[in-house]
Design goal:
The protein is an all-alpha fold. The protein is built from 13 helices and no strands.
């Protein structure tokens, strides 16, 4: 899976079409929030929403907001995410996902796929658009390469590795919860386009240790990774995540 530099992410097809980066980031945040709301409605694991958010960002790194309907793409990303991300026993059909996404956007009572004089026709028209968008995601955006990883599993592993679970039950649960929340919030940034899930997880642990005022030597977090690379990447990841709380 391709990762981008900061310089490459300074522009995209949307900004090339005249969309200010600030507006693009606002729309990104709205669509990611919608993804999490729809996934919650569907009772799917949070990692599905995170995967959908990553796919959304990869889609709009190659396509413009002005030429693609953001709700259609968000819905397609969730459908693709259920295929990319293993969700044992949690499979949802396209109808369920369409309803959940449009409920999250418009509310149940105002969902144009459920109600209105043309709601049956509208549903089938929207379904066709979503299927086409999903094909673009799977074929063109990720090329059926499902090898990118999210930070979650790495966060869980590293919490145990660095002894956070030895702080006592209450403190251990608090640190694990904090790390999990930081992992969720990191999806609001473009870090998933810049770093692997393992590197992001290391940055999350560094951010958590700072917030919890725990002493954790940077060298311990580096592990077997490239120390020079991580010395640059981890402070940037921490900054990006903590900036969300200002």
């Amino acid at each position: 899976m391709r990762y981008y530099s900061v310089e490459e992410l300074a522009s995209n097809p949307s900004t090339d079409d005249g969309v200010p980066m600030e507006l693009f980031e606002t729309v990104r945040g709205q669509c990611i929030k919608l993804s999490f709301a729809a996934v919650e409605k569907l009772s799917l694991p949070v990692v599905v929403a995170a995967r959908a958010a990553e796919l959304w960002q990869r889609f709009f790194q190659k396509r413009s907001l002005l030429r693609n309907d953001r709700l259609i793409v968000t819905t397609a990303c969730i459908i693709a995410a259920t295929k990319v991300q293993q969700v044992d026993g949690k499979h949802k059909n396209i109808k369920d996902i369409l309803y959940a996404c449009f409920d999250a956007q418009y509310g149940y009572e105002n969902n144009p796929l459920r109600f209105g004089s043309r709601h049956h026709d509208t549903f089938h028209e929207v379904k066709q658009l979503v299927v086409k968008a999903e094909e673009v995601i799977l074929f063109d955006i990720i090329g059926f390469h499902f090898d990118s990883e999210l930070p979650y599993s790495n966060v869980v592993r590293m919490v145990h590795k660095f002894g956070f679970d030895d702080l006592g039950d209450q403190h251990s649960r608090a640190i694990q919860h904090l790390c999990w929340c930081l992992a969720n919030d990191s999806i609001q940034t473009n870090l998933c386009l810049r770093y692997t899930g393992e590197v992001i997880a290391r940055g999350i642990l560094m951010a958590a240790s700072q917030l919890a005022r725990l002493e954790l030597a940077p060298q311990a977090i580096y592990g077997s990774g490239d120390a020079n690379e991580l010395a640059v990447a981890l402070p940037e990841i921490v900054r990006e995540i903590l900036d969300l709380y200002e």
